Amino acid sequence: MGSTKHAKLLNSNQVLIRNMLVEKKPLDQIKPLLLQQHAQLHADMMSEYGDWSYQDEVLVGVPAVWFRIVPEGEDHSVAWLLWHLTRCEDITMNILVMKGEQLLHSQEWIERLEVDWRDTGNAMTPQEITEFSQVINLEALMNYRFSVGTATQEIIKGLGKEQIYRKVDHEDIQRLFKEGAVVDEARGIAEYWSRRDVAGLLLMPATRHNLVHLNEARRIIKKIERVNKK
Fold it and tell me: Is 206 in a helix, a strand, or coil?
């Protein structure tokens, strides 16, 4: 269900990486830490370090049906969280950082995912989150997440100093709305990204955002586990 020790280690490493980026330390010092941190927030088969995976600690062995449950007192399901995390990473890394195509389209994931949604999910109503959680193809969702994470690893490896501190372009922010990646009701998330540079996006959402919502997933799973023990 995810160890508290590893969550604390990820938190401390996140602060270290952030400080190194702010201080503009040499990239050959930053990149290995950033790549490892990012990999630990995805499935362990992504890692080149033979290391543990916080995502796997949280999710492996959890019954699939639990991924679809929004427990009482919670706003999300684990399935929704994984969608939201993956969409935010796909959108920011592949459009805002690389000025390319999001993998949702370029790798034709949408049909395999079996959902009608294209955006980050920020503006979904509780009813829509419940509906979404019931219909999403979970196997495809995990594969999509792995594909996005793998692409991000390659993006990080290829970034130079002049790229990593580049500000997000306004034209690329407008693409998010044109492509339906962000809806008007969730405009705030695009405005947040518009104020970042690439380094800021590598922190949020590529790493910190994953950690925050994996912690939320861990809490949701523990809550479902307690209910099922009664």
Answer: coil
